[in-house]
Amino acid sequence: MVLTGELSDNLVENVRSDTWSIYYEDIGDNLFFGNGYLSFSGNSNSSVVRSISDQGVHNSFLMVLGEAGIFLFVPFVFFHLRYLFFGFKIFFESPVYLLLSATLFLFLFTSHNFFDNYLVLFLSGWLVHYYNSPSSKLLSVN
């Protein structure tokens, strides 16, 4: 399709901003305490949990804001911005940590599977461990 110069209607119509916009009203309605677990994760196959849409929000930041509210969203964003900040601090000594932090941060904008993908959770936990360890180069960088 793309090689022949034609674009599929599916590629043109299904963009992330349209997917995210489905959830904006629900985020605004329950900004402080959220809508509840799995409400932004798509079709949950559960009779207890009401999913807002059959497809998930495809953005972990919006998922945390929509499901848990602003009180958990702020620390979630803070920790991930902290990864980026520390990565910038030690970039010239060890650039891999900034690249991993940026990859994780960008992944969160495109996927709502942060809590379901154990490799991503491991990477996040490993970055926390590295940045907080005494052997980290952060303690010696001004």
Task: Describe the structure in your own words.
This protein is an all-alpha fold. The protein contains 7 helices and no strands. The longest helix has 20 residues.
Summary, kept brief:
The radius of gyration is 18 Å and the shape is elongated.
**What's the helix-strand series?**
HHHHHHH
What structural category do the secondary elements indicate? mainly alpha
Rg for CA atoms: 18 Å
Distance between termini?
A: 52 Å
> Which band does the percent of strand residues land in?
under 5%
The best one-word shape is elongated
Number of domains: 1
The tally of helices reads: 7
Number of strands: 0
Assembly type of the chains comes to single chain
Flag low-confidence runs. Answer: none
Helix content: 40-55%
Q: What would the average pLDDT be, to the nearest integer?
A: 81
Give the tags.
single chain, 142 residues, mainly alpha, 54% helix, 0% strand
List the helices and strands and how they pair.
Blueprint: H1 9-13, H2 16-21, H3 24-29, H4 60-68, H5 70-89, H6 96-110, H7 118-132
